[in-house]
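Q: What would this chain look like folded?
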Amino acid sequence: MKIVVDAMGGDHAPEVVIKGTIAAVKEYDVQVILVGDEARIKPLLAKERYPEQSILVHHAPEVIEMSESAATSVRRKRNSSIVLGVNLVKEGKADAFFSAGNTGAVVCAATLGLGLLPGIERPGIAIVTPTLKGISLIIDVGANIDPKPTQLLQYGIMGDAYSRYILNMADPKVGLLNIGEEEAKGTEFIKQTHELLQKSSLNFIGNVEGKDLFSGRCDIIICDGFVGNVALKVSESAAEAMQIFLKRHILGSVMGKIGLLFLLPGLRRFKKDIDYAEYGGAPLLGVDGAVIIGHGRSSAKAIKNAIRVAKEEVERKFNEKIQEAIKKVEKAEEQKQ
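A: My prediction, written as structure tokens:
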């Protein structure tokens, strides 16, 4: 299996990307194509020990920076690591693409380059988050900030397929993120979406609130990309602040420092539970190919796990599962008519 990795994507690229890639090829049965500036990549690779046949380098002279406009940069920088990386998948030279670079550019390049699956109108970014009862999937967290109700229904169908075939959930519960649990709450857009989800074959439990993001009340939370991205960023900052508060108060006294010796095992487990690096990257669902998006601050550990996520998505032929699920919904709608 060949997985393309954007060597220039992320706040700490290419050094961290290369370290994560080397860790991945040592642990997983994959071959990685690093796309980026050869002059920066090859000297870094030369310092490391790894199975040389497992990592190839594909030169890309241009880089799309985090601050650049997505659509404009994808059109103008045809030789960027993101555009060339997606093209390798499009041309059948690789099975999946991962980048921790400009999210908008990845979404745009993947949508234009690979196209969308039949029955899907817009792609959605899905992330796996820890809950009090295990894990849940949130979709969308930034790909589509102005969707239609039908597109959120499609997110529900894709999220259901991902939860079943990748996360191994038997009958995932679906919730719609809203300002209240009552059906009458929310905008007209949310009410229309609620109606579509309620009529669908999904295991829809109704509206859920922000407090349910980590409660484990449902397995899939559906929202538009604007709300989802805000919720994601707030959750990340809260988790980081919580760790700082704990450290500050525990280390603020002699007794706290002594007690820390006994707390360390539990604190390590706590940190692992809330560490995004454990979950790797977020799949871009709906495009006709396996595309994984990483956090801009991705560590080597996160890069390694993102490559694992890409591998699993390809191995389980996930896009075929989505198409099967879409066809079932369309067939059910035809029978109703």
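The first strand starts at residue 2 and ends at 6.
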